[in-house]
Amino acid sequence: MKNGTNILQAIGNTSLVQLHNVVPPGCAKVFVKLEWENPTGSMKDRMAQAMILRAEEDGRLKPGDTIVEYTGGSTGIALALICAAKGYHLHIVTSDAFSQDKLKHMSAFGAELTLIPSEGGLTTKKLILDMIDAAEEISQRPRTYWTDQLNNSDSISGYYPLAEEIWNQTNGKLDAFVQCVGTAASSRGVATVLKRYNPKLKIIVVEPGESAVLMGGQAGPHKIEGVGIGYIPPLWESSLVDEIIAVNTDDAKDMTRRLAREEGLFAGTSSGANVAAAIRVAEQLGPDAKIATLMVDSGLKYLSTDVYRK
């Protein structure tokens, strides 16, 4: 059991469970890390804490400052939790492209929101760039610190403990790790540690099929929230990646619903994409292998979307 003096000590040490029903017979064993056990219901608590802690330590962030960030939701919610616990004001630049559940969650923690209009509720390269421009403008105000998640390498170290947990929970017997790419911080952070333990361990990253830019394709609109920004993220490190898999939005949503109905795992769309990709890898590696991936966040963040309306 977790014990601590404040909410921030509840971050991390999440459960790892094996999938039993959605993985076809004859495939590798697929394990999923339940990152919704973090306080705000997503893995982003890890990186938000790391970014704020590093900025405090080197003086970029001082007591009484305002923090600003552009985000589709989970990073903003995580930052809002950290700011509430530490006493910072938070200004979030986000959009109507992201679930109302996430926007309300950020507001509940006291964040101030600026909404950038989307094109029909879709995540596009233009939307991401418009959000970044708005955040940069706000960051020019006095006593304002911009966490700038797409360019902030501090976020990578927030996922080192996640990798250590996966390695320990699998007793060092792991053949592959699968994860969607948004900022690329989580896949890079986990890969950095796992590759130190076993250089032969395969790192497979996932992106939307409609916007498969990491594979050399064209950017396009999609509805897998939090991933697929439409261009190669600045934190991307191709040398750590062994394979890239594209998963279409409809397939990600379908797997997300299957996880709830067949496994009792209530997750978001990127988690569905992770598992859809992990099953492809499991088919390749065969029954003697072990694969880990992430339940990135909770399905509670998506009740206002169409993911669970079928």
List keywords for this structure.
9 helices; alpha/beta; 310 residues; Rossmann fold; 2 domains; six-stranded mixed β-sheet; 35% helix; four-stranded parallel β-sheet; 10 strands; globular
Descriptive notes:
- The mean pLDDT is 96.
- This protein has two domains: 7-37 and 159-302, 3-Layer(aba) Sandwich (Rossmann fold); 44-146, Rossmann fold (3-Layer(aba) Sandwich).
- 35% of the residues lie in helices and 17% in strands.
- The longest helix has 17 residues, at 269-285.
- It has 310 residues and is α/β, with parallel strands linked by helices.
- A six-stranded mixed sheet has the order 1-2-10-7-8-9. A four-stranded parallel sheet has the order 5-4-3-6, sandwiched between helices.
- It starts with 15 loop residues before the first strand and ends in a 15-residue tail after the last strand.
- It has helices at residues 44-57, 74-86, 100-108, 125-139, 154-157, 160-169, 185-197, 249-263, 269-285, and strands at residues 16-18, 29-34, 66-70, 89-95, 112-116, 144-146, 176-180, 202-208, 243-247, 290-295.
Summarize the structure.
With 310 residues, the chain is α/β, with parallel strands linked by helices. It contains 9 helices and 10 strands.
Structural domains: how many: 2
Order of helices and strands: EEHEHEHEHEHHEHEEHHE
Regions with pLDDT < 50 over 5+ consecutive residues?
Answer: none
Quickly name the level 1 CATH class of the largest domain: Alpha Beta
Radius of gyration: 18 Å
Described by strand count, sense and barrel closure, the largest sheet is:
6 strands, mixed
Number of helical stretches of at least 4 residues: 9
What strand line-up does the widest sheet have? 1-2-10-7-8-9
Q: What's the architecture of the largest domain, going by CATH?
A: 3-Layer(aba) Sandwich
Report the structural category.
alpha/beta
